[in-house]
Amino acid sequence: MLKVGLTGGLASGKTFVAGVLEGLGCQVAYADRMGHEILEPDGEAFADVIREFGSEIVSAAGSIDRRKLGAAVFADKARLDRLNALVHPHVFRRQEAFFDAVERDDPKAVAVIEAAIMIETGSYKRYDKLVLAACPPEVQIQRYREREGATEAQARARLDRQMPLAEKREYADYVIDTSGTKDYTERQVRKVYAQLKELAS
To answer: How do residues 98-114 score in pLDDT, each as one tens digit?
Structure first.
């Protein structure tokens, strides 16, 4: 089995790339979804996160309001680091369980984890190959604004807190240029998939 990390940045198209890889036959897991599940009332980090950040992040329905939690940590690196320390170990355990299950099912599979900050956390070292979905910062800002209804200042503030994609390129085995049409991106993904599949077999 080939372990592949797929990363990118704000609105860089990594989820689209993941979907194409999944359609081609890769087994794909999404770290962001795992993180959301871990914060659910029956999730592994639910109680710890409330204990750390207070009951004001709990919605009327009794779940963690991720917007309120995001606002609590967005401008405070120490608090963001604390949140990551509570959530990431559980995410990594889920990822290992995913890899174990895939390998049992198909030892020649291409197993992909899609995650935004695997280079920043150092977890990229756990993968055999690293794929980066990349486009220029102005494209990221435009896409984020369209998707979230954000202002330019909000988009830039969020982008400025991330590791630039130009720096992430240094870590990547494959770079998918997502700045063009979806067809253009998909053609690149198919080429990368062919190489990954060959390595896995």
So the answer is: 999 999 999 999 999 99
